[in-house]
Amino acid sequence: MPFTETGIPDLLVYEPRVFNDNRGYFFESYSEQAFLQHGLQLKFVQDNQARSTYGVLRGLHYQQEPHAQTKLVRVLEGRIIDVAVDIRKGSPTYGKVFTIELSAENKKQLLVPKGFAHGYSVLSETAEVMYKVDNFYNKASEGGIIYNDPALNIDWGISLADALVSEKDVILPTLENCTHNFIYNSDK
Questions:
Q1: Cβ–Cβ < 8 Å for 73, 129
Q2: Residue 25 lies in domain
Q3: Which of 135, 153, 166, 186 has the largest count of CB atoms under 10 Å?
Q4: What's the total number of domains in the chain?
C-alpha cells in the first residue's frame, strides 16, 4: 500500500510507486483511485505552489471550520522538514508533533487532514513545495501557532536564530493560547 500510518490518527504519509528506467522516472503523484481504495474520499479544489530559499520557515498555519483544509504536501525541488501538529480537541494525540523530510528525491507526500496546524522549513538551497487543498482560502478563518512554542519543541532542522520567518508568523500564539474549533471524531 502507498500509505503509511504516522502514529497520529488520520495523518498519513503517501508514497507513490515510482517507475525508473534509463530515461528517468514516471509516477502518478496523485491518484483518486488509490485514495479511494484506502477509504479516503477527498475532493481537491486547488493546487498551491511556493518557492523558498534555505532557512525559510512557514507556519504553523490552519483554517478553522467551516473553511478548514486537508492538504496533500509534496516537494518538486529541494528538501524540507514538513511539520503537522494535531490540534483536534479530544484527540488521543492532541498536541503531538509529526515531522518528516519531504524531498524531490524521496517523492514522499504528507496528507495533513483538517484539524492540524501545518508548516515547513527549507533544508536545501531552494525548494519548490506544492500542495493540494480541498477547500479555498478564507482569510477570516485563518489561525496559527508560533513555530517556536516551547511546549511543542519542534526540531525544524535549521537554526531558529537564522530562520527567515514572516512578520505574521512571529506573532502567532502558542498552542495553549491559540483559537480553533477542531473536534476529534473517532467514528471516521
A1: yes
A2: 3-162
A3: 135
A4: 1
105 within a domain of the structure (yes/no):
yes
Residue 171 is assigned to a structural domain of this protein:
no
Task: Tell me which of 14, 61, 120, 184 is the catalytic residue.
Answer: 61
Beta strands across the sheet bearing 142-144: 97-103, 79-86, 116-122, 57-63, 142-144
Half-sphere exposure of 113 (CA within 13 A, CB side): 20
Can 67 be counted among the known catalytic residues? no
pLDDT in tens, 108-118: 999 999 999 99
Strands 71-77, 109-112: parallel, antiparallel or unpaired by DSSP? antiparallel
Q: Tell me how far apart the alpha carbons of residues 146 and 61 are, in angstroms, rounded to a whole number.
A: 9
Q: Dihedral sign, CA of 138, 187, 82, 1?
A: negative
Q: pTM value?
A: 0.95
Instruction: Let me know: does 119 contact 103? Beta carbons within 8 Å.
Output: no
DSSP bridge partners of 21: 24
Query: Is 38 noted as a catalytic residue in this protein?
Result: no
Summarised one tens digit per residue, pLDDT across range 67-84 is 999 999 999 999 999 999
Indicate whether 58 belongs to any domain. yes
**From the candidates 14, 62, 120, 131, which is the catalytic residue?**
131
* CATH code, 116: 2.60.120.10
